[in-house]
Amino acid sequence: PAAFALAELIDNSLSATCRNAGVRSIQIKLLFDESQGKPAVAVMDNGRGMTSKQLNNWAVYRLSKFTRQGDFESDHSSYVRPVPVPRSLNSDISYFGVGGKQAVFFVGQSARMISKPAESQDVHELVLSKEDF
C-alpha cells in the first residue's frame, strides 16, 4: 500500500539524518497543482546528502547500501540490523537494496533526486523513469 511506500521514503530520510548534530528536518509534500506539472510526492530532509556516484549506485536494483563493495561507495560497513519493533519506522527493507526504488515506483512513474553532500558545494541530480529502470 501507499502507506508502506511513504514509510520507506521517511525511513530513508531518518537514516540520512541520524548523524545530524542539530535538528533533524524531514518534510513530506504532496503536490497536486497541475500548473506546476504532474502530481508528485516530495520528501526533503537535511541529511548528509549523496554524491553523484552514490546517487547512481542507488539506481542499481538489488544493490543494497549495506553490501556495496569495490566501485560502490558505502559508509554502512558496521551496520547492525535493528531489533524488530512493531509499528516502527526502523525497518531494514533497504538492507536488500529494493526498498527506496520499490517505494518510488509504487508511488509514481519517475524519480527525481536532488542532493548536496554536507561537505561539498556541489549539488547532484538523478532523474530516472520506471521504464528506464
TrEMBL record:
Biological processes, Gene Ontology terms: double-strand break repair
InterPro entries, A to Z: HATPase_C_sf, SMCHD1
Name of the protein this chain belongs to: Structural maintenance of chromosomes flexible hinge domain-containing protein 1
